[in-house]
Amino acid sequence: MSGIEDDVAPIDPWLLKKLVCPVTRGPLRWDAVRGALVSDAAGLAYPVRDGVPVLLAREAVAIG
Fold this sequence. Notes:
single chain; mainly beta
């Protein structure tokens, strides 16, 4: 599949605006390539499993 559908977060847009990084309390953005929520401030990518964001620092992957 390609196109705009690939860039759409599997999370409700309203909820995505409310979620914050548990480390920095800063905003998160959807990264379709990683399939994760990214905190640019913390340099971490949080996985989304079955449409549920896993906002645990121990589950995050460092991005660089």
